[in-house]
Amino acid sequence: MLDPRTDTALASDLRVSSDNALFLVERLKAGLPMLEKALADAEYREEQERRLEAYETASRRMDDVIAALETRYPQLAKEIALLFKVSLETVLEVQVVNANRPDGKPPSRSPRRSLEMTR
Question: What is the largest CA-CA distance in the chain?
Answer without folding.
Answer: 127
